């Protein structure tokens, strides 16, 4: 078949490589002309390109097992394979900047026989008698046997042909900054995986990357306008100095910032069914979008690319591809969407200082607190869950036990470190400093 893939991000390109190597002719369509050797890549239309990513074990094993040459190119480009302490090799993730990973996949896809590229803006999907027959790119028609919407969270090309998506605002926003370790410097605490610090009113993550780089991420409630001022570089650095552990990572003797502070907002959890017209399907964030703070997006997206390739390889008729992908999505994607909606709701409640309600949802941060306080044996299951090796349903028995603990009077302890109000006061003091003459 001739298959047109709209969107040349990691998910679209992975689908393209898998399908091309199965003998299909692939056209990747994207507004971006791609990276230029020796130049920094300012990716067009991808807000999160410079923001931190965690590429979970599912990403690594899928690329390693099904596209081994692409996987080796990513590792050769500097990606570091990191596993949680004591975990097996298959639990290892890739620590790498998205820009490095995506450039490696882009270059591999561009060399692949059977894949061609078209640079331009997709105006619409052309549908005749209930069947997609091609796309219109900058007013030019491009015919194909199958159209794949991999245009990401901001893409809406298949929306006119699909049921309305479920959509819930995450209620969160973030500020992030990229750093590089100084020559010979060792990483800060938690470097063997990901540094994670819960505070009353906000969350901090540190993502180690390739070539000694790492990103610091502050996540806050969207409505918190004072913490929104973390987008100021001075306020960001002052906040880093105030947080135990993070202060070690960002100590000027250890590391230096190499990018401006980048802000992200408008985050949503979304899930949608496949288009109702034949020969048009959707994968990746075009189907399921989750709060990026959970680091699940690329793992779910690459799995959806592989699911599409497998269905095509199984000779599923084009007219039935959408229905089969819907069945797969309800089993493999929907549980993670529902979990993230609940996770975000309970995290915001925790940040607001509300006590855990035994009759309401039990958040992940509460499960972790209960495990550390009374049930350390739970961490084995929780680590499998955080690695997405088991689905959210595996936590149901733990949540039932926590409800019983709460009814008996237990509540999570207050987190260590600065509170939201202390951080806000620090930011105000920083912003009120006079500008040097």
TrEMBL record:
<feature type="domain" description="FAD-binding">
    <location>
        <begin position="3"/>
        <end position="35"/>
    </location>
</feature>
<protein>
    <submittedName>
        <fullName>FAD-dependent oxidoreductase</fullName>
    </submittedName>
</protein>
<dbReference type="InterPro" id="IPR050816">
    <property type="entry name" value="Flavin-dep_Halogenase_NPB"/>
</dbReference>
<dbReference type="InterPro" id="IPR036188">
    <property type="entry name" value="FAD/NAD-bd_sf"/>
</dbReference>
<comment type="similarity">
    <text>Belongs to the flavin-dependent halogenase family. Bacterial tryptophan halogenase subfamily.</text>
</comment>
<dbReference type="Pfam" id="PF01494">
    <property type="entry name" value="FAD_binding_3"/>
</dbReference>
<dbReference type="InterPro" id="IPR002938">
    <property type="entry name" value="FAD-bd"/>
</dbReference>
């Amino acid at each position: 078949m001739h298959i047109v893939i709209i969107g040349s991000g990691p998910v679209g390109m992975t689908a393209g490589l898998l399908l091309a190597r199965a003998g299909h002719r692939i056209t990747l369509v994207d507004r971006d002309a791609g990276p230029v050797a020796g130049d920094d890549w300012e990716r067009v239309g991808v807000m999160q390109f410079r923001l931190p990513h965690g590429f979970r074990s599912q990403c690594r094993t899928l690329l390693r097992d099904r596209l081994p040459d692409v996987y080796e190119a990513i590792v050769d480009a500097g990606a570091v394979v990191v596993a949680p302490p004591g975990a097996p090799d298959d639990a290892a993730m890739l620590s790498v900047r998205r820009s490095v990973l995506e450039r490696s996949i882009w270059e591999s896809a561009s060399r692949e026989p059977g894949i061609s590229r078209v640079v331009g803006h997709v105006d619409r999907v052309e549908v005749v008698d209930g069947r997609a027959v091609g796309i219109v790119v900058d007013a030019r028609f491009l015919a194909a046997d199958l159209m794949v919407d991999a245009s990401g969270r901001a893409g809406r090309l298949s929306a006119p042909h699909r049921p309305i998506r479920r959509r819930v605002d995450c209620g969160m926003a973030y500020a992030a900054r990229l750093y590089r370790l100084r020559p010979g410097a060792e990483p800060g605490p938690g470097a063997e995986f990901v540094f994670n610090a819960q505070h009353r009113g906000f969350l901090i993550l540190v993502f180690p990357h390739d070539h000694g780089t790492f990103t610091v991420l502050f996540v806050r409630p969207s409505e918190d306008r004072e913490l929104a001022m973390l987008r100021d570089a001075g306020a960001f650095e002052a906040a880093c100095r105030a947080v135990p552990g993070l202060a070690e990572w960002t100590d000027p003797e250890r590391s230096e910032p190499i990018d401006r502070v980048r802000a992200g907002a408008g985050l949503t959890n979304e899930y949608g069914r496949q288009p109702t017209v034949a020969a048009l399907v959707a994968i990746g964030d075009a189907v399921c979008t989750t709060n990026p703070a959970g680091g699940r997006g690329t793992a779910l997206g690459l799995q959806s690319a592989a699911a599409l390739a497998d269905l095509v390889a199984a000779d599923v008729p084009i007219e039935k591809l959408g229905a089969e992908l819907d069945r797969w999505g309800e089993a493999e994607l929907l549980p993670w969407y529902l979990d993230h909606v609940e996770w975000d709701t309970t995290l915001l409640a925790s940040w607001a200082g509300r006590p855990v309600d035994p009759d309401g949802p039990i958040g992940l941060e509460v499960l972790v607190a209960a495990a550390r306080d009374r049930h350390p044996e739970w961490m084995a299951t929780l680590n499998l869950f955080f690695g997405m090796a088991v689905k959210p349903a595996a936590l149901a028995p733990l949540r039932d036990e926590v409800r019983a603990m709460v009814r008996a009077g237990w509540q999570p302890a207050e987190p260590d470190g600065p509170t939201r109000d202390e951080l806000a006061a620090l930011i105000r003091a920083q912003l009120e400093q006079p500008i040097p003459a």
